[in-house]
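User: Is it possible to get a 3D structure for a protein together with its bound compound? The compound here is 6-phosphogluconic acid. I've pasted both below.
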Amino acid sequence: MGEIKVLPDVEALTSKALEVIIAAAQSAIQDRGQFSMALSGGSTPETVYRALAAPENRTRLDWAHMHLFWGDERHVPPNHPDSNFRMVKEHLLAVVPIPDENVHRVPAEMEVRMAAFHYEEVLRQYFDGEWPRFDLVLLGMGEDGHTASLFPHSAGLNEEQRWFIANYAPKRKDWRLTLTKNAINAARNIIVLVLGDVKADRLRKVLTGPEKPEDNPIQLIRPSDGQMVWLLDREAAKYLPDDLRG
Ligand code: 6PG
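Assistant: Yes, that's possible. Here is the predicted structure of the complex:
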């Protein structure tokens, strides 16, 4: 399940997320010369990107040795309002000195299956054909228990071989592009950001209820050989038992 930390508010949660990200980046660059991070969409991760872009934070990272990927993407062009790339570009890429070649965008303007195959090739090239082991994967959790674009009762939940797939979201009736559970679970570090009382009931089911990953796909996420931390605010954590509240 991983470590659970409950923070008093969004500012404290964001600050803790930055602390984990910056520590992981500095450690990876020192040990392996570079840092690979898979980014998430959603409003909670967006808050973290804005904070990371602030001068007092961005100057603590060696952007020339940082590589940014997307853990999931909507099936839209990069300038579309729903694009996760567009959101990261607006709040982070526009102000940090990261080389263009270190920004690995999902080609979501392509036919969706082709986009997934193309991006999986990008991952294979970066990770030298080994199973992708991101230094850090940043995730959110939807009210329905999804993470990345692994949605309840979607075919992608059962994918065992692939790293990155096109996944049809039944309830949303649209296609998404996403890392598979195995690709996420191979990461050295996983951060899950959950904010707000709107997530509280689902979070209780995910963390204290029965294992029902078809209903709660985020239950599939547990690193095979890495660290996982849930960063929650008090609202999201309000139904959790005291022994789980970190
Ligand atoms: C996306 C995200 C998605 C998101 C959750 C939580 O593309 O929307 O990858 O998995 O993280 O839906 O989003 P919020 O933080 O906005 O609730």
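The chain is about 30% helix and 20% strand. The pocket of 6-phosphogluconic acid is lined by residues 40-45, 72, 84, 140-142, 146-148 (CB under 6 Å).
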